[in-house]
Amino acid sequence: SPSDPDLVARARAAKEKLGDKVFVLGHHYQRDEVIQFADVTGDSFKLARDAAARPQAEYIVFCGVHFMAESADILTSDDQKVVLPDLAAGCSMADMATAEQVAECWDVLTEAGIAEQVVPVSYMNSSADIKAFTGKHGGTICTSSNAKRALEWAFEQGEKVLFLPDQHLGRNTAVRDMGMSLEDCVVYNPHRPNGGLTAEELRAAKMILWRGHCSVHGRFSLDSVNDVRERIPGVNVLVHPECKHEVVAAADYVGSTEYIIKALEAAPAGSKWAIGTELNLVRRLANRFAPEGKEIVFLDKTVCFCSTMNRIDLPHLVWALESLAEGNLVNRIQVDKETEAFAKLALERMLALP
Ligand code: CIZ
Ligand code: SF4
């Protein structure tokens, strides 16, 4: 069983044996049984930075998903080895934009005569290949905390933005934060010829949104917002910007996981909150703040855990730590040199954003 005291003891022993050689990162969406062994917790960006700030740690055990481990590898030194305890922990959103599809999209933009006006902006939640494409074409990475600043910067470099791979974060940022209209946005569908768009539509658009979404956040609905308001009078609805535009438009507050945590820390006793983000985090926050008299519920009971985040469980973590303690480097995530160089360029543009 996941809370098996034997496994807990084994994880502790292996970690102790490794000492400073190992640094365990835990994403906010990880299971409690894994989070208890994390040296730091955070969102994908904070974790990648924290890994880089620990050069003495030879092994970075990344409890999160594949694209996050890639970003950690890109931002850490070559001597640091990033380990993902289960290689099947991918991200369905990141998988929605492949290198081939994005290269094809660039050809479509070139055919339409607009490629030189387009600046790619890619969400952190993308593969190293997509980050490299972004760097190569003069674009930047963004997170859900700095998407507005990234778009402002991009519109200083060019007239149009190709936003990858989360259409919801792109649309929400353009409309909520940048004063654009829904008509300024078009959706490029990689499964249709020319993205399902005419050259005229591409030329008229300001935001070209890649047709990707998060399979967790994308499932919160406007109904769930209306239902919770009826069920809990006075509730504050707080959602992540990966949610659909109609959900974000109906919410009281919108922000990244770090924003959500800070908002709940600052919330007064007696306040009520419905949160639209991953269930592991919402449950942990509900338990943490209940003693302070803050009532925190999950926005929609039909939405589940992120199944790939949940692949990292205590047995996988024990296996990874014990293997490392025995000198076996398992499940290393290593981005090739050329990809890394261009991806780093895009990440550095983000770090330089005002
Ligand atoms: O949806 C996710 O996976 C998020 C918000 C990741 C992250 O930490 O940026
Ligand atoms: Fe990917 Fe969504 Fe899971 Fe995050 S919560 S890892 S974006 S599928």
TrEMBL record:
UniProt cofactor note: Binds 1 [4Fe-4S] cluster per subunit.
tRNA processing recorded as keyword: no
InterPro entries (UniProt xref): NadA, NadA_sf, Quinolinate_synth_A_type3
Gene Ontology annotations of biological process type: 'de novo' NAD+ biosynthetic process from L-aspartate
Gene3D superfamilies per the UniProt record, alphabetical: NadA-like (3.40.50.10800)
Binding-site positions, iminosuccinate: 27, 44, 123-125, 144, 240-242, 257
Primary residence: cytoplasm
Swiss-Prot/TrEMBL keywords: 4Fe-4S, Cytoplasm, Iron, Iron-sulfur, Metal-binding, Pyridine nucleotide biosynthesis, Transferase
Subcellular location: Cytoplasm
Domain of life: Bacteria
Cofactor: [4Fe-4S] cluster
Transmembrane segments: none
Catalytic activity reported: iminosuccinate + dihydroxyacetone phosphate = quinolinate + phosphate + 2 H2O + H(+)
GO molecular function: 4 iron, 4 sulfur cluster binding; metal ion binding; quinolinate synthetase A activity
Keyword Transport: no
EC category: transferase
EC number: 2.5.1.72
Alphabetical list of Pfam families matching this protein: NadA (PF02445)
Binding-site positions, [4Fe-4S] cluster: 91, 214, 306
UniProt similarity note: Belongs to the quinolinate synthase family. Type 3 subfamily.
Role, per record: Catalyzes the condensation of iminoaspartate with dihydroxyacetone phosphate to form quinolinate.
Listed name of the protein: Quinolinate synthase
Protein source organism: Streptomyces spiralis
Gene this protein is translated from: nadA
